[in-house]
Amino acid sequence: MVNIRDIKSDENNWFTYGIFDSTSLFHEEMKVMIFTDDGASLEDAYRCIEHYNSLTDQSDLYTQIENMLKPFFLYMYEEWGAMEDVYEEIADSLEPVIEGFKKGEALCSYLYSPTLLVFPQLEGELGYGVEAECPWEPEHMCCILIRNEKVVYVGPSEGNDPWQDEEDYYCIWNEED
């Protein structure tokens, strides 16, 4: 059974926050943010956390995440490199990541300070996001959106949710040549 600790609401009751023990992508205490003002509930959070904590047992979902992180990382690596004269510190900080990537390290291992985002659930469906600090997107972080058994978006955190249309998840790095 999932336990959410330190449950608190913001002063406007727009969000409810808490902490749970992650046993999935991140093996640590993890924050959870529940969009209560939009209609998400603690029950929704429990369902999402249970699904999230099973990701490492669901190799297809984990593989989808890694496969979608790859073009996002490589695109941003090239972009920061092209602007190295202005963003030298960011470009330099990505060198250990590209070296690790070339050695086969999981890109998920470079994400940190994660928060599980719980949105109002649609009847019969499950959807949530994982937002984490990300060395190749230091301003906007990284957002991973999951709907049912599919990863629908991996990219910068821009306020997307798992219930949007496919075209709302457009990312330039996913364009086919």
Protein model, in words:
- The chain is α+β, with helices and mostly antiparallel strands.
- It has one domain (5-124, 136-174).
- It contains four helices and seven strands, in the order E-E-E-H-H-H-H-E-E-E-E.
- The chain has a seven-stranded mixed beta sheet.
- A hairpin with an 8-residue loop joins strand 4 (112-118) and strand 5.
- The radius of gyration is 17 Å and the shape is globular.
- The model has no long low-confidence stretch (mean pLDDT 91).
Q: Hey, roughly how much beta strand do the residues contain?
A: 15-25%
Q: What's the alpha carbon Rg, rounded to whole Å?
A: 17 Å
Count of DSSP-assigned helices: 4
Query: How many beta-strand runs?
Result: 7
In round numbers, the mean pLDDT is 91
Sketch the major β-sheet. 7 strands, mixed
Write down the overall geometry.
globular
Helix content: 25-40%
Write the topology of this structure:
Blueprint: E1 5-9, E2 16-21, E3 29-34, H1 42-53, H2 59-82, H3 88-93, H4 95-102, E4 112-118, E5 127-133, E6 142-147, E7 150-156
Parallel strand pairs: 3-4
Antiparallel strand pairs: 1-2, 2-3, 4-5, 5-6, 6-7
